Structure formats: C-alpha cells, structure tokens
Amino acid sequence: MNDLRARVAAIVERNRARLERRGERGSDPAAAADRNPLFATGSPRPGGRLPIARGPSVSVGSRPSLDSPFEVRERRISIDELGLEIVGRAAIDPVICAHLGLKGEAPDRWEDVLFLDTETTGLAGGTGTYVFLIGIARFADGELILRQHLLLDLAAEREFIAALKQEIEPFRACASYNGKTFDLPILRTRFVMTLRSEVTVDESHLDLLHPARRLWRDRFGSTTLRQLEESVLDDGRVTDIPGSLIPDAYFYYLRKRDPTIIAPVLEHNARDVISLVRITDRVARAVTAARAGRAPDHAPAAFALARIFERTGELEAAFACYESAYFDGRNDLRMKLALAFARHLERRAEVDRAIRMLETLLDLGLGSPPWRMQVESRLRRLSKKRWRQLATAN
Amino acid sequence: MRTAVRFPARVSLEQILDGLARDTEFQEMVTRWERIAARPARYAPFPEWLDGRIAAALRRRGITQLYSHQAAALESTRAKHHTVVVTPTASGKTLCYNLPVLDAIAKDPAARALYIFPTKALSQDQLIELERESTDMDIELKTYTYDGDTSPAVRAAIRSAGHVVITNPDMLHTGILPHHTKWVKLFENLHYVVLDELHTYRGVFGSHVANVLRRLRRICEFYGSHPVFICTSATIANPDELARRHIEEEVVVIDESGAPRGEKVLVFVNPPVVNRNLGVRRSALLTGRDIAATLLASGVQTIAFAKSRVQTELLLTYLRARFPQPQWPPELIRGYRGGYLPSERRAIERGLRDGSVRGVVSTNALELGIDIGALQAAVLLGYPGTVASTWQQMGRAGRREDLSAAFLVATSSPTDQYVVQHPEYVLDRSPEAGLVNPDNLHVLVQHLKCAAFEIPFEPRERFGTEDTPGVLSYLDEQGVLHEAGGKYHWSDQAFPAEAMSLRTATNDNVVIVDTTGPAPRTIGSEYHDGKARVIGEIDRFAAQVLLHEQAIYLHESKQFQVERLDWDNAKAYVREVKVDYYTQAELAVRVRVIDEFDRRAGQRGFDHAHGEVLVSTLTSLYKKLTMYTHENVGWGKINLPEQELQTTSFWLSLSERATAGWPKERIEVALAGLGNLLHGLSPLLLMCAPHDVGLAVEVRSPHTERPTIFLFDMTPGGIGFSERLFRSTDALLERAREHLDSCDCGTGCPSCVGPAYALGADVREAVADLLAMR
Question: Which residue in A145, A327, B106, B185 has a CA-CA distance of 20 to 30 Å to A166?
C-alpha cells in the first residue's frame, strides 16, 4: 500500500514537472490546496458603488454556517435604488424582448423572468464541473428579490439542487449573461446527475450577451459584464475576486471551512446578478429611445440598432438609427451602412439625397473596387429612377 | 467502372504462380511455398426468434441461411453472454454484431447500441453498411458517426435520436463519457456495445481502452443499463483472455468459422545475399517491386504492404516507373497511408472496389477491415511485426472463393530473418497473444481521475486495482479529489480527459503545407486550388526525422522539399521538387535513469535492471541517399530542439568480469552488436512492433558506470515491455545466441548484430564471446 502510494505520488509529481516545463498548469495542487488564492493579491474588501453595498437594502440570511450543507441568503433592493427605468416597471413589450435576444415565447410580465448567474468549479463543463453557487433574482412588489443558493458540502448536492429546482420550477423564462452556452448547460448537467431531471426555466431565454455585443462591442472592445459595469453603468468594481480564482477559492473553502473565504465569491455573484438586471434595463432603454426617434449618440450602437429594427420591420426607427449613425459615424462605418441607408432614403422618396450621399462617398475616393462598383451600379439605378420621376412630373 | 485499362497479356494467377514455381532463380529465394486448400461453407438456419423483417431482407439479398458462427453469435448474445467472434478476414463478422443489434432495435425502438472502432475510416464503412441494411429491412434505425469530424450542429440530434452511435475510443474518452448527462437516452437503453478489431486494443492503446471501458461500464451502471459486449478479433492466441481483461467479465468465444475459404498460396521469400562480406541482402523493396510488377502487368489486382510511410512512397515511385503513362492509366497504382486526407483515401477505396485502381501500395492503414473489396494478390514487404497482422494483410487477397496468393518478402531485419527462416512461426504455432496491462499505474491513475470527474467515487468501488481507496485518498490529499459524505468528488478546474491521448503522449501534430503555388488540376489531387494547401500531418516525434528543413518529403510519390519548419507553430512549409535522392535523418539518443525499480546480477556476466528513464532524442544531421543505389551523396545539419520521452526501460550492463582484459574498442563493438541483436529480437518476445522499443547503447553509463544497453518503451510512461524483458532476460539472451548461431553471414550482418563494415570486423565474434560467457 505504501509502495503503491509512493509510486502514484511519483507519477503525479513527474507529470506535474513535465507540465511545468511546458508552461501548462504549473500550479502545485497540494500547495494550492493550502494556499488561499484570494490573499495572493491582498484581502478583498466590500467596495464599489453598487446599491447593495450602500445600506438600505435588507439582507436576510447569515454568514455561511457549518450546520447546514447548503444555505440560501436573500436580499431585497428597491427598483428605484437600482435606477431601473423599464425593466421591472412596465409590462414586457414583446418587441423589446426580441431586441433582447429572446428565444422562445415572450413572457407577459417582468415578474415572470428569472435573472440568474452561476458560479462553478471550472469553465470546461462536463460532468465533473459543479455549480456551487447560483444567484437568482425576480421582481415582486416593486423590489428585486435576489436569492443566492450556496452549496457548502459537495455531498449534499442532491438536496441543494432539489431545493433550487423547487424554487425555479414555476419560471419558464430566464435572463442571463452568456447563459445559453455556459450557465444553463452546466445546470442541466447537475439536474441530470442529481435528480435525473430536466431544466425548464429557459424555455424562453434572454441572453443579454448578444444584444450587449451588438450595442457596445465596437465602442468598448470587450463586452464582459465587468467592462459594461464600468463603461455603460459607470459603476466599476473596486474590489472583486477575479473569476479565474473562484474555483480555487471554493476548493480552498471546502478544505478550510472558513466563511470569509467564500464571502467575496457571494459578493461577486450578487453583483453579477444585479448588473445583469441593470444592463438589461440599459439595453431596453436604448431600444425604446431609438424607437422614439432618439438614436444612440454612438454611431456603431446606432448602426447595430438600425439593423435590429430593420429585421423586426420597424422601418421608421431603423431609418432614424441609420441616419444618426451616418451623421456621427466615421467613414468606414458610413461605407458599411451607405447602401442600406440609400435604400431607406429611396423608400422615403428622397432619391436626390441618396444620390448626393453616394456621390460624396465616391468623391472621397473611399472603398475597395468591388464596393465602389456596387455603389456605382446603385447610383446608375437611382439616376434612372430620378429621370423617370422627372419625366413623369413633366 | 473503368474498362479502358488494357493489359498486354492477361494471364491468370494460376499461370503466374506456375511460372514462378518453375523459375529457378525465384525458387532460390523461396523458403516455403505453402498451398492452403479451399474449405467449404458451414451453414445454419435463421433462428426462429429473429425478427421477420430481418430474415426477409436477408433473403431478398440472396442470403437464405447464416454461416454457423453467425448463428452461434446470435444465440450467444441473445443469452446475454459477452461474445468474442474470432474468425478470418472476410468471414462475415459484421453480421455477427449487426444482426443482434438490428433485432434488438426491431423489437424495441428505444434500444440503443454503441459501436467502437479503432479508427475513423472504419466507422465510415460500417455506417454505410448498417444504413443499407436497415433501409432494406424497413426498420426505423438512425445511425450516426460521432467523432472529431461530426459537426456541432448535428451533435445534439445524435445524442438523443441515434439508435446506433458509431465512435472510436478517443472520442468516447474525451467527447462522450465526460458528458454522459447529454447522452441519457443512450446510456439508459444501451443493449449492446460492439468492440470491433479487439486485437488492436493491446499494448498502451489497449491498456487505455480497457480503462475507458471501465469508465463506460461505471456510467452504464449509473443509468441502470447492463450492455452485452460483442467483440470481433483477428486470430490471436488469447482472445478470451484479452476480452476478459477489457470487459472484466466472463466471455463466450466463437472461433469456428463457417465461412468458405478459397484456395490460397503463401510464399515466403528471402531475397538473396548480394554481398556476403557485407552481409547485405537484396532489398525487400526491389524484390517486392518485381513480384508486384509481375502480378500487376498481368492484370492481377494487387495490394502491397510497406512498413513505413517512406517505403510506401518509394515503392509507389518504383512501380509507377515500371508502368509509365500514357500507355498505362495514371490511377493504375495508388498510394494509401495515414498522411493522406480522408477524401483522398475514400476515392482510393472506391477505386479498389470498382476495379479502376488495379494496385495499391499501403502502410498497415489498409490492414483493418476497410472495405476495399476482394483483391487477388498481396505482397508484404517485410514481416508486419505480428502474426495477426501478417494474416490480416495476407487475408486482403482472396476474399472470394477463388485462388489467391500472398508473398511475404523478408527484409534483413532480425525479426524478418527469424520469421522467413522459421515460417512455421507464422503457419503452425498458434499466433501470439494480445497483451494489455490496464492496471499499469501510469494509465490507471489518469483514468481514475477521469472516472471521478464523470461520477463521484463511492468508497466501496474498485477501479482496476484492489487498492482503489488508497489511490483515492492519495488524490484527495493532493487536492485533485475532495472527499465529502464518503464520496470522492472531482475538485480541480481542469478537464482531465483533455490532457491525455489514448494513442500517444501528445496530440501534437506538425501540419504539412504545400507552397508550390498555382498548379494545373491533375488527376488524383482533389484539392489543387492554386493556393497554399495542407497535404497532411505527422506527429512531432516522426516530424523531427521526416520534416526537418531540407528534408525530401514524399507524398503520393511526389517529392517535396521542406523549405521551412516552424517548430513552435507546428507547421512545415514544403515545395514540390524533382531530385534523384531522398533524405534520412540521424537520431541521437541519450538515456538518464530516474529510478531503478529492480536489479539482478545475471549468471552470464550481465547485470540487468529496469526502471524509469528520461530519453532525450536529437536529430542533428541528415544524409542524402540516391534513390536506387542508396549511396550517400551529401549531408546537412538539422537545428531542432531536443525531444524528451519519459518512459520505462530495461537495461543490461556488462560486468567487469565479462570484458576483463578487453581493449576498449572491442567492448564498444561488442556492445553495439549485442544491442542490435537484442533490440532486433525483442519484438518476438514482446509481441510488439520493432519501433515500440527504443535502443540506446552507452559505453559508460553514468548510472551503472558500466557498458550498458538500454531497451526502452517508446511510449511515454511505458507499458511494461521493460519489466517483461527484465523478467525474461535469460530467454532473450538464449534466443539471441540461437539466432546468432543460425545466421549465415560470416562476420555480422544487419539481420543479427549489425553490419561488420559499419561496426567493426570482429563484431560477430565479440558478441558471440559475450553470449558464451558463463
């Protein structure tokens, strides 16, 4: 037995040494198990300007305890405090849902949408990746109720998932940030592993990642939730545990049972869910404003919205967005939208304007030869049309 | 079908064999001319319980009864016995598993089956076959291949709807088992697991596969299914043992084939010694070329098996030179090997079936059951390394009931010479055993981790070793697993299956990019688009020898020169050239002992030991050799980083007594010669391929401080060859002495201790002195 252990130890040790030489996963698991990943970069403190950190919100629940294998903590935050204008207030407009990237049937009320975000023991997925924390938020009575289910003992996963299932079962719609490819597949795996059961909460799914990308990627480069908090909500995180450290923090917690280890992860998750709600509101606001003729100032965002409106057949709003994007945009963006914009102008019987716009772009010497050929051919058609119009007018 | 192929003289195979039998020059090379008589078929009726639609469809196809072994397989699997069918090539093995599966699905549409094939190409064939059968039978059956080529878009459909999922062990390992929750329908209703070509699951690969199957069974248990395993295997000595090690339950072996067999002529050919002083025989390649050319010129559809990629290309070049265009159609002879793209290989397989391709030169890639129809003759350039492979390659000729012929042309390698001088090793003796060691700790621990990732471990579970709890608790201490509520849970961010390959240590391949530029479309190249194109890929270990800068790389008998090798990004940029030489890289090997497991002082003045070693290989220069005469016409330097291989090794060191009073030069020569001899013969003892074992010789090893010969596992981590060599050192030395005695060279040749001209005039004598030592 000792011999076997020694031989296994030698194999593990050598494999690790080899990986280290190759520069892969150089960490020593044994050492990692005894090192708090959080303290490597200094002790995190609660901070930032998130409403939940400011006080008036009610926090039910307690610090993680050792008595129960899992626990649920609840916070309530008023809609006003979150600064929401659309989400959680009016009835859901199905068209807004379409803009939000909804797949499936649109829910009737914001109260029917479950906002969720999971923390897992790894990013790879598969049956060995656990969901140990899930934050779920819903609207009720003018408040956002955020509940966090935290698994304190892997042996109790079944009970943990069963309790979660009971809570999310009434919902048929959810909102997430990249949940389609990440959170939901992993959750699905856990449901099968523990209960041999299906997940139905995402029959309708608003995955905010996609509309957020359309609106903001060109502007901010990245569209991580962290980036959007900073750039869109103007409310960046001062201290936060980096997502990449979360699995190790959890494993460390499982060994040490020290609640202060997991506290930053709970905070991280709470912020993620609340930011998800606020970002949803910002996307909805951008859409509503554009429909009312107030296209976003930022030309790429306006262009992105124009295309969405075009797809859903709201041509007036699409036109407003194209126009705004054309005026505010740089030449490369103008080239991208010129033909579509010209089509809208043509439809609105502003043929002269369309011709002037296209001629200007050509005069500037812009574009690749194929693009210029396309524009020239459109110009010829428009000119013919104009002559015909003049002829009939006479 | 192409019928425009015109042959100057259509001579029957019988006439060609007659001619060869009368050809005295040829007969001088023949060590054995064996005629195996035809055997009639043995039939059995369809079992009554077989679904009526299946029997009806078979009758429509002209099959009115089954071969006896097919019927036996049906009864055995119906009784829920794990079953191994061991019958020759082309005996209708496919039906042995397709019929039980079709019957199960006909009776219960929810039933599922998993087919595991060793290679991707094989599964393509099976898919077509099974779909044709089910369509005929009017049975709703969805068959899908699930492997690395399956597009993500259809994967979801396969997981829930596929009745039969066809995959390979690698995909099962990384793609299916770690994601078993996506395959609930499959695992809940899994009736049958088909393991085709069981004998290929031996050695390292087999040891990995046995562990993948352990994981598969664990998952089936989790979902409450108990599938019956149906295996097929080429003829090996221990199919029951091999299957039991894989399935870990009792198995029923069906090894009496009811299929008919045509008359077959087997010829063992030993090319003549052309230079007795140098101990050089005429090249097997050239001798094989002549035999193949004779057959091809008479219109006999022929397959030639070469042992390496380079040889495949050389032989193809030689044969094409014999059959120049435009008199002969260009696709008369094709090459077939691993580096070719799948579409190219499919086209060649089709050509062989419809007869438009008359000859094919292949590596062992075509040895397994890829459907290429019936060929009339097979020419084996060199002993394929195992008896099972020899029979499979020979079996490629003569699938029909008529006469066929197979020629085994020996090279001067020690195993080849042993086999050609003792043909009964192939013909008489029951062939060798397929060996696996699933409990090899290197392999086991990796799979134990994967298994823990898939489903947490219960403390009472046993995974291979009896000491599973010990390994689990160790991994818990290491933080890889986490014990909670008595179960061990995976507690690492990493995805354990991803980092490990079942075949080699690394999945790291070098991609070959042709930068020749715009070229006219030519027949036989389906992807000339005028831009840089990928023409193949090769693993790094082979790449250091084949794709170094300035190397001449052969592909479809075209010569390419490597212009740039981007080692870091694993890309070799090649350009087509026309030169009259090929290149050969020299590999320098260094061994460092990390851990000595065991050591014994031998009786013959040898100390032998085995243990863990680090082998460093470095290619530092290459030679240019002329195409036909193999003359050295130049050399160049290679600048590549050292490659490292961590493995197990057997080593043999000479005691001081053994070489007392010898001059240093003589010790050097004797050591090199003995190394060659032992390395050459070890495959016969280990039943592995010669390149599975590496050789390094050190006149003064830093570890033993004595002259030492290292025979190491070429597989990272090792698979137990070295331990087996350690335990049977005496047998190995005995065999070496016998072989040296019977070799008819005077002073040493490549078949025994190595050529005297290269090693030293007294090499044979020095080795004999060493071996005679008591």
Answer: B185
Residues A313 and A240 in one domain: no
Q: Do B366 and B396 form a contact (C-beta atoms < 8 A)?
A: yes
Q: Which DSSP helix (H) or strand (E) runs through B111?
A: none
Q: Are residues A99 and A211 in the same domain?
A: yes
- Domain around A16: 1-33
**pTM of the predicted model as reported, rounded to 2 decimal places:** 0.75
Contact A193 B181 (CB under 8 A): yes
Extract the tokens encoding B764. 């044979």
State which residue of chain B sits closest to A22, comparing Cα positions: B644
Do A201 and A69 lie in one domain? The reply is: yes
Query: Any chain B CB within 8 A of the CB of A17?
Result: no
Name the DSSP class of B432.
Answer: P
Residues A276 and A343 in one domain: no
Running DSSP on this structure, what letter comes out for residue A141? T
Give pLDDT tens digits for B504-540: 544 456 888 888 865 444 433 333 344 567 777 776 7
Nearest CA in chain A to B176: A126
Beta strands per DSSP E along B699-744? 708-713
Distance CA A279, CA A233 (A): 8
Cβ neighbours of B499 in A, within 8 Å: 19
Higher pLDDT, B455 or B391: B455
Task: Tell the burial category of B150 from Cβ atoms under 10 Å away from its Cβ (0-12, 13-18, 19+).
Answer: middle
Residues A128 and A111 both lie in one domain? yes
- CB-CB: which of A29, A33, A189 is closest to B181? A189
pLDDT in the model for residue A4? 60
- Pick the residue from chain B with its C-alpha nearest to A247: B493
Nearest-angstrom CA–CA distance, B137 and B204: 40
Q: Do B491 and A122 touch (CB under 8 A)?
A: no
Chain B interface includes A126 (CB < 8 A)? yes
- Give percent of chain B with pLDDT exceeding 90: 31
Same domain, A42 and A29: no
Answer whether A8 sits within 8 Å of B441, measured CB to CB. Answer: yes
Put simply, the answer to whether B494 touches A124 (Cβ < 8 Å) is yes
Given A287, A315, A350, the domain boundary residue is A287
- In tens, the pLDDT along B148-207 reads 778 888 888 888 888 999 999 999 999 999 999 999 999 999 999 999 989 889 877 888
Share the mean pLDDT of chain B: 83
Q: Which of B441, B477, B489 sits opposite A154 (nearest CB)?
A: B489
Q: What is the CATH number of the domain that holds A226?
A: 3.30.420.10
Give chain A positions within 8 Å (CB) of B465.
Answer: 4
Query: What average pLDDT does chain A have?
Result: 81
Name the minimum distance, in Å, from the CA of A306 to any CA of chain B.
29
Judge if A279 and A310 occupy the same domain.
no
Interface pTM (ipTM) of the complex? 0.78
Give the whole-angstrom CA distance, residue B510 versus residue B125: 28
CB B435 within 8 A of CB B386: no
